[in-house]
User: Fold this.
Amino acid sequence: MHAVVLRYIDQVARFGSIRRAAETLNIASSAVNRQILKLEAAIGTPLFERVGNGVRPTPAGEYVIRHARDTLADWQRTRTNISALSGNIHGEVRVGTIPSAMISILPKALDSLAQAHPNLKFRVLDMAPSDHAEEMRAGRPDVAVLFIDRRYRDYEIVAQLGAKVGVIMRPDHPLAKRSQLTLTECSSYPVTMLDDPWLLFESTLQNEFIRSGAELNTVLRTNSMTLMKQAISSGMGLGFFTPVGFLDEIRTGQLVHVPLTEHDLAATDIGLFVHRGRARSPSVQLLVRALSDEFVRAASDLRNAPTKA
Amino acid sequence: MHAVVLRYIDQVARFGSIRRAAETLNIASSAVNRQILKLEAAIGTPLFERVGNGVRPTPAGEYVIRHARDTLADWQRTRTNISALSGNIHGEVRVGTIPSAMISILPKALDSLAQAHPNLKFRVLDMAPSDHAEEMRAGRPDVAVLFIDRRYRDYEIVAQLGAKVGVIMRPDHPLAKRSQLTLTECSSYPVTMLDDPWLLFESTLQNEFIRSGAELNTVLRTNSMTLMKQAISSGMGLGFFTPVGFLDEIRTGQLVHVPLTEHDLAATDIGLFVHRGRARSPSVQLLVRALSDEFVRAASDLRNAPTKA
DNA sequence: ATGCCCGATGCCAAAATGGCATCACCTGGA
DNA sequence: TCCAGGTGATGCCATTTTGGCATCGGGCAT
Assistant:
């Protein structure tokens, strides 16, 4: 369908080297080189700046590279859509999400889909929020579960969940009966912290949390969510999370969630984002529907087993 | 840059005939035919259904055709953006608009741009509102001035203007001193009507207006806005419009605008729509900025010379 | 200074594309 | 009913495009 030069410039840009791009493309470097030279001649502007040890895109090149990648990605989606016409839902859905959603909401949704559609693939992006923001701005994820940010204009929020950040603890903890808490009230008790606390909050919220966090008695610091859960369950300390990651434990009374009063933290909601242009793709629709269901279930869980009576 | 087959299938779909497409492409029909056959073989699905007197796209074909057109259009925009890097703002901006905006807002904005950027081209689409909706849904216009409709999710509303539909008349008309009017109050006086009244209103509003309009004493019915203006100015009858098309006349006191009380009609606002994905294109930005300025100016005009004291 | 890796280029083979003539088929009108 | 004029498909050939290989000249790091 598409001219080879699209793949060529994509790879060349990725490696910053014509020869290495040619290598991964299983093709002679001269062929790749010539395609680029021809394209530059056709456009009338250099697309890559020749530096000693390779090439680097010019501003014009950036445009062309983006166009090439957009085109190839759109072609991939087109193929997927065509294949879906004959009932074969396959292809890959890219999902960006916060860790909380990876614990319960996302796995349940994926599980319910995986059974019915064995050919459906998912790519879940677990990364730093700054990269999330970058991905969202670039429009790469098809679906995302993130703290609500209206600046992602290419995405529509199709569901949301009031998920105040709060304190997770055992029901027999001294603070478990409170209806709300401040960070300073927690400072007299041992707490556990995700080793990458910025994973949980938007950049504006990080600062306050980290600032207050510095005064906290952090008895455990880990990047393992599993260990974290075990530690909190065994009474090792408090945890700071939205209730979303602990729906099951809260419902069964195993753990308790008490919201924090700090306004900036409490104001955060989790949203289900769908890329506007791809919302009609069958595979995306399936996932969105499954996630919506989980959002509804989570909301009802939070209502029935409120953060504290 | 792009494989010829993109242009081929575009034209074939446009004409519903391989031979005629080949003709307009100045190429042998066999070449076009073969490209399509090859593509179908590569995808594994027929893209066109062969009917006796030509071809018709299959559902899979519709997807591919749309992809091809999107790709070519995006490539065009990419070329434009690259050219803009060297300070040469050119290219074509597609604008969809209601007639009212064509009278004052749009011409002024275009005029101010045409002087500074002689290479900038505009394509203004004047058509039935159903086609407008279709165009907007297909995401073809880059910029649009339309009655606000939140369903156009690919577009962002960057400016709006409270523009209640009302009655336009000479200041010495018996109704000119009123602060508001109903359609029935107008029925005792001669009125003028645009021959295509649906051009002015969203489909949901059309019905009421036309229904009431049937009882009006329509002394003049024309599709010429110029004649319309002359007729109202010479006292031939009332006109039903937003004030937007009559800003100059209202400001100078030549004409008067009295809003209608009918709720559905009065609730309409005019919005400046920009396609989300193309808002950053220099040419689009220029036009949006110029139109925004005109929106502001129009809003101030409406405030200073209110529809009636 | 000397390898080493880079992109550019000349030469040739291979592949893709296009043009022409022709075939088989469908459709609409005598 | 049949014929005329249209359609897409296909075989054959010329042209164009693309790719592979060897090689050149030039930066860059050791």
Q: What stands out?
A: The CA atoms of residues 217 and 234 of chain B lie 17 Å apart.
